[in-house]
């Protein structure tokens, strides 16, 4: 579990570093421009991390499912090899998906204004500037979002349905409390991450406004990466204990 949490922290740190520094610079200094290749790089890392995190959340749900429903088989099923395969697969599949979308976005002709009505280089916002019909690509976006968002969310919902059923049958009240706490934290993160993403990328663009896209993007680009450490780490007794020990050491060194 901690190995998966460390990967989630790495993804969130890189994720928010891809969007927020440039966005903050635009607001603070008024320099709202970006090089074309810089826009492509930002879009590539954003899509890579978005896809990889969606798959990682499925891995975390599976980890909890095995831990609660099959506790005696957990060390066998969730081996180090399985963890490595989960993490590697998330990064590789996210990168391949991102590479395909970014390459397409950088090679389509733009004949309108180059002003993107967004706070980062989001592909749907870039498509509004093209001078060609992009319905085929929009269909691929729908398929890609379904594979990296809807299917993982369905898998997570099914796994937690089994988990909640197993928890309900527990005799230990303390065990039920800990299981409910863990599951509710994960489901909160998944919902905050998936719902805005699904609305933006699965909703037809003529039924959305740029303002809606920007407001919803705040959830999956800023709020979710900020809330993840609070939801996962600070609610964990072991992590809180380690944090207190570090603070005590720092205070003792200063004194």
TrEMBL record:
Its main location: membrane. GO terms for molecular function: G protein-coupled receptor activity; olfactory receptor activity. It is found in: Cell membrane. It comes from the Eukaryota. It is a multi-pass membrane protein. Residues 1-232 form the G-protein coupled receptors family 1 profile domain. Keywords: Cell membrane, G-protein coupled receptor, Membrane, Olfaction, Receptor, Sensory transduction, Transducer, Transmembrane, Transmembrane helix. GO terms for cellular component: plasma membrane. Putative odorant or sperm cell receptor. Belongs to the G-protein coupled receptor 1 family. This is Olfactory receptor. It comes from Camelus dromedarius (Dromedary).
């Amino acid at each position: 579990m901690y190995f998966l949490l460390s990967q989630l922290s790495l993804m969130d740190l890189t994720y928010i570093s891809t969007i927020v520094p440039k966005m903050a610079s635009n607001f603070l200094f008024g320099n709202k421009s970006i090089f074309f290749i810089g826009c492509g790089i930002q879009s590539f890392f954003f899509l890579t991390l978005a896809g990889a995190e969606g798959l990682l959340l499925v891995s975390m749900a599976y980890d909890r499912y095995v831990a609660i429903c099959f506790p005696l088989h957990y060390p066998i099923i969730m081996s180090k090899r399985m963890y490595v395969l989960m993490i590697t697969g998330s990064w590789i599949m996210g990168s391949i998906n991102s590479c395909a979308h970014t390459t397409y976005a950088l090679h389509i002709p733009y004949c309108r204004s180059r002003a993107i009505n967004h706070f980062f280089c989001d592909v749907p916002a870039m498509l509004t500037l093209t001078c060609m019909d992009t319905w085929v690509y929009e269909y691929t976006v729908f398929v890609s979002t379904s594979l990296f968002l809807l299917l993982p969310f369905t898998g997570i919902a099914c796994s937690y349905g089994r988990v909640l059923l197993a928890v309900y049958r527990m005799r230990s009240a303390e065990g039920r409390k800990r299981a409910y706490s863990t599951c509710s934290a994960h489901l909160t993160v998944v919902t905050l991450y998936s719902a805005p993403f699904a609305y933006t990328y699965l909703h037809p663009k003529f039924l959305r406004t740029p303002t809606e896209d920007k407001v919803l993007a705040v959830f999956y680009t800023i709020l979710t990466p900020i809330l993840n450490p609070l939801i996962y780490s600070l609610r964990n007794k072991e992590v809180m204990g380690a944090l207190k020990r570090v603070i005590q050491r720092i205070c003792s060194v200063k004194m």
